[in-house]
Structures are given as structure tokens and as C-alpha cells.
Amino acid sequence: MLVDSHCHLNLLNQADLQQDIPTVLAKAKERGVTHFLCVSVTLDDLPQLLAITRQYKNVFASVGLHPNEQPGFVPTAKELIALADDKAIIAIGETGLDYYRTEGDIIWQQERFRQHIRAAIACKKPLIIHMRDAAADTLRILREEEAQQIGGVMHCFTENWEIAQQAMMLNFAISFSGIVTFKSAATLQEIAKKIPLDKMLVETDSPYLAPSPYRGQQNVPAYVREVAAFIADLRGVPVETIATATTDNFFRLFSRAVR
Questions:
Q1: Is the pTM of this model over 0.90?
Q2: Is 6 in a helix, a strand, or coil?
């Protein structure tokens, strides 16, 4: 049993959404992937995400605004709390900081991040953190906002061991995507070897970041097994060990998800 802890089902072949999702989920089931967290990128996604969760009880959703989306717009914590008031919404995010594509003023992005953290604490739903070229500010704001009260996950982690340790001390799990399978990801692979099993999640971030040997193709939730199998091989353990640990971690962290 595996959980894809971060995917974007609503972005898979949008022109033919209703036919595509059953096929995608059926193929995932064949690979032992049984539950899915469909993560919000824009607030406009929410009706579509909720529609998917209504149809598939093993799919959960989040609400949040990706740091690269709608530059300058800062929803209030109160607005986010209201949007999160649905049993299918088990997390706040994805949120965080991304300085890779941001030019000029970044204060709005930091304030948006703070509003998401405050909403997560208020509604007691863990955070899904996107962090790119912004580790120092991300960790600083998490500390300042006392995000350890609610915790969450560092999605698609690509930073170093020191950053991973600091994140874990703030009550955040570390999630590995298909990037860990890339030949260029030696540093990340070392982290995957030594991270405590009770702090690990696996994800696809589909339709992006397909793992080897599917790199360059559209990613799908079934491929989370490739991520788990690769990490198992790194650690010299059966894939079932990684599957069991990451599944247990998911349901412990996202306690509103029904197993």
C-alpha cells in the first residue's frame, strides 16, 4: 500500500478530465497506490478538486495558492479558513516561497505565506510547503509564525541535510519526488538514505517530474512506486518497508484523511 502524498490530478489531460482520472487511478491501484492528495495550486482549483474528492473517496484535497501564482494577491487567513471548511480538505497549501522566478518585490509572497500558516494553525490542518531558492526565509517565517504547532510536509524536497534537519525540528516531514531517482541527485539520495523513516513521505507531483525510467514523460500517481522502490534500494530494505512507513506517516500527519 502506497500513498501519493502530492499530485495534481486536475492537471492531467484537462481536455478529457472525466475519462482520464478513472484510468489514472486504476493504473495506480495496479501498482499498489491506494490514496492520493490532490494539491491546490490556485484558489480557482477548489471546485474542481472537491468534485474529484466527491467522486473518489480515496482522493483528498488541499486549499492554497502556489507562490508563483497570481503575483501580488494575498488572500487573508480568514478567507483561507473559510475555503478549507470541507471534510475533504485535509491540508493548507501548497504554499511557501519560490525565489527562482520571482523578480523585484518579494514582500507580498512572504505575507501570503504567513497568511497560509495562520490559516493552517487556526483550522488545524497541516501545511504543504513549496520551497525553491528560499530555504533561509522559508524556515525563518515558519519559526516566526510558530508553524511547528501544526507541522506539515516539505514537498518535493531538494535541499541539503542541514535544511532537512531544521525542517524536521519544526515538525515537518520530508517528501521525496521523482527527482531522487535522477543521476544528478547524489546529495538528495544521501539524504534519502539517512532520514528517519518516521519523517519520510513519497510523492509524484504529477503531471510533473516523472522518475527514471519515465523521465521526460507525463508523470502519473502510479509512478510513486518507482520513487519508493528507488529509496528502498538506496537503504537496502524491501520496498514494502518504505511503503508501510510512508503510508503510516501520511495518515498520522494528515489525520483528517480516512484510511
A1: yes
A2: strand
